[in-house]
Amino acid sequence: MRSIALDVHRDFCEVAIAEGGQMRLAGRVETKPVTLELFAQSLAADDQVVFEATGNALAIARIIEPHVSRVVLANPKAVKSATQTAKTDKRDARTLAKLLAAGFLPEVWTPDEQTRVLRRRISRRAQLVRQRTEEPGTRDPDPQPQAALAGV
Q1: Which of 133, 62, 73 is closest to 108 using CA atoms?
Q2: What's the predicted TM-score (pTM) here?
Q3: Is 140 helix (H, G, I), strand (E, B) or coil?
């Protein structure tokens, strides 16, 4: 089983692989969905993949999840405290792979698909309620407009 780490950035991911006690860098992968899907297809079913929980981490996890045995989102603050050297993309990727292989990685809970759907639904509803209550004049101030016209 390999432990594969991605140091995720906006345009690319730095890849490091820990296997059999050996660490190697595997270059960069673009963070486009099509490229990530090709990368995910190249992984083995028993691989485990780790990257820090950042803004687009769940989207990347959804692309990679079907192809590997486990996807781990690491707590960025805990990973930062575990490293005491200068941060570079290659060092970050190697550190993540080493921590995952050793079993010392502080994980972040990730919701399943049903929970994600419910969260999106609740968030959308809250947004609609805010819009309706914040905009003045969106509600009819006179609930019976016909009664007002009858007296004219």
Answers
A1: 73
A2: 0.68
A3: coil
pLDDT given at position 33: 93
11 domain residue, yes or no? yes
CA distance 100 to 41: 21
pLDDT tens digits along 116-131: 899 999 999 999 988 8
- Range of 60's domain? 3-102
Q: Using DSSP, state whether 54 is helix, strand or coil.
A: coil
The residues pairing with 70 across neighbouring beta strands, listed in sequence order, are: 48
Q: Is 48 exposed, middle or buried (0-12, 13-18, 19+ CB in 10 A)?
A: buried
In a domain, 132, yes or no: no
For the chain, give the longest Cα–Cα distance: 89
First to last CA, the chain: 83
Instruction: Please state, in angstroms and rounded to a whole number, the distance separating the CA atoms of residues 100 and 90.
Output: 16
Question: Do residues 3 and 12 lie in contact, with contact meaning Cβ atoms separated by under 8 Å?
Answer: no
Place of tokens 């960069």: 28
Kindly tell me the number of DSSP H helices and DSSP E strands found in the chain: 6, 5
Query: Domain of 95: which CATH number?
Result: 3.30.420.40
112 domain residue, yes or no: no
Structure token digits, residue 105: 């990685």
At 15 the three-state DSSP class reads: strand
